[in-house]
Amino acid sequence: MNPKNVLVLFSLLLFIALAGNQISITSSDHASAQIPPVDNSTNKDSLPLPDLFTKVEKSVVQVTEQDNSNELGSRLGSGFVFDKEGHVITNYHVVVPGSNSNDELQVSFLDGNVYPAELVGFDQFADLAVIKVKNITSDKLMPLSLANSTNLRIGETVVAIGNPFGLSGSMTVGIVSGLGRLLPSNENDENLGTTTSFSIPNIIQTDAAINPGNSGGPLIDTQGRVIGINTAIFSNTGVYSGVGFAIPSNTISKVVQSLIQTGSYHHPYIGIVGLGLTPDLAKQIGLTQTKGFLITSITKDSPAEKADLRAGTTTKKVNGRDFDLGGDIILKIDNRDVTKIDDILAYLESQKQVGDKIHLTILRDNAITELDLVLGERPSPDKIDSSIEDLPNKLPPQNGNGNSPEELYDECVRVAGKSFCDFLFRK
Residue 76: how many CA atoms within 13 Å on its side-chain side? Predict the structure, then answer.
C-alpha cells in the first residue's frame, strides 16, 4: 500500500477519532456542579517561560494504556492533575476502553514516579476522560487551575505541555491563532455528509507545536492556567504543520464534574443533520441569501421529528455530490441569528441543557415559520448509527487509489494498533 495513503488517513484525525464530516446538531449540558473557570487577567502577571515550566511541570503527566491485545504495545498520551483527590484529565481517545479487560492504565510524573490508575468516566462526544491515580498521597498532587476560555483573544501567547513521541516534559510555545473552530470540520467545504459523528464547538486553534503524544496535555496561558486540552492537529504529513486544536477550558469545567460524579455526561439533542448554506447551494434552492442551516435529514423519534421540523425531499447534485434539498432552513435560535452551524452548536453548548425549550425561526416553502422544540438527550452512538442506515459509518476510499475502507483499516492497525483504529473507524 502506498505510504501516502497512511499519511492522508491520519491527516485530520491523527489524535481524534470523531471520524467523518456530517454535522449532527447537539451540544453539552450544564453539569449539576461545575467548577467556575478563573477569569483571565492581563499579561502583567505573565511568567518568564522557564518559570512557567517550573510552575506546571509537576502537574503534567504521561498517560499510558498497556493494551495487551496489541502486538505493537502501549498507547500513550498526556494529561494534567485536576484536584487533590488524584483525578487526572486527558482525552477519551487516549484511554478509550478496549475489548480486553486486562488493559492497564499508568500515570507517570516528570520525577519518574509511576502509579496505576483507573478510569472514572469518559465522554466520547467531547473527547474527554477522567482517570484517578491510585496509591499516591495528596502532597504529590499539584492541580492546575482552569482559566476562562471565553476571554481568549487571537494573538495571545499560549504554551503546550506534554509528551510528544513519548518525550516527557516537553514544552512548545505559540499563540492563539483562531477561535470558535468546529471539530470535525472542513473549512473549505461546508457541504458535509458521510458519517454520523458529532462536532465539538468553540475549539481553540493554536500554532504551538502539537504532535503524537501531546493528546490530553494542557494548553496553558502565561500564568500557568489551563485554557484548553490539546486534542487534534491538521496535517498533510501526519505530524505538526502549524495548526493544532484544543478543547476549551469552559467545556472541560462543565463536563469533568459530571464525569467524576456519575461517570458520564448527558448532551442535549435535536436530531437533525444538514448543511450550512453556500452560494452554490442557495442558487440551487432559489434563494438570494446565504445564511442559515438547511435540514437534510431528521432522526426518527428525535425532538426534531416531534416538533414537526421537515427534512429535504428532493435530491439534487451540488458540486458533484447529491444532497436532499427542500427541507426547513433554520434562520434563528431563540432570536439569535444563525449564519452557520457553529452558531447553533456554540449557543447550545454554553446556554442549554437536556429538557430546555428552544424557539426556532425557520424558512419553509419561502415563508417564515416559528416553532418550539424541547431538547432531548443525545442517544448512544450505536443507536445513532442504526437510526440512519443509509449513511456509511466508515471512511471512504482515498481518491484515485481504489483502497477500500477495510484495506485502510488493516493498514491503520499495522501502523497504529487495533484499539486506536477501532475507535477511528467506529468499529
Answer: 19
Annotation says 149 is catalytic: no
**What is the pTM assigned to this prediction?**
0.74
266 flagged as catalytic: no
Q: Pick from 34-38, 221-225, 253-257, 276-280 the range whose average pLDDT is largest.
A: 221-225
Judge whether 215 counts as a catalytic residue. Answer: yes
Which position among 24, 93, 103, 185 bears the catalytic label?
93
Question: What pLDDT, on the 0 to 100 scale, is given for residue 136?
Answer: 95
The mean pLDDT of the chain is 77
Q: How many Å apart are CA 79 and CA 107, to the nearest integer?
A: 9
Q: Place 368 in a pLDDT band, splitting at 50, 70 and 90.
A: very high
Q: Are 398 and 53 in contact (CB under 8 A)?
A: no
Distance CA 239, CA 62 (A): 19
Q: Pick the catalytic residue from 27, 168, 215, 302.
A: 215
Domains parsed from the chain with CATH numbers: 3-30+40-44+145-253 (2.40.10.10), 57-140 (2.40.10.10), 268-377 (2.30.42.10)
Give the integer Cα–Cα distance in Å for 140 and 423: 33
118-152 pLDDT per residue, tens: 999 999 888 999 999 999 999 999 999 999 999 99
* Active-site position among 127, 207, 221, 343: 127
